[in-house]
Amino acid sequence: MLTFISGSINAYTIRTAITASNRFTMSLQDMTTQVNSTASLSGVTYNGYESLLSFTASINNTNVAQEFRATLLNGTTEIWHGSVQVYMSQSNAPQHKSIYQQQNDQYISNVSTNEYIIMD
Question: Can you list the domains of the chain with their CATH numbers?
Answer without folding.
Answer: 2-91 (2.60.40.2320)
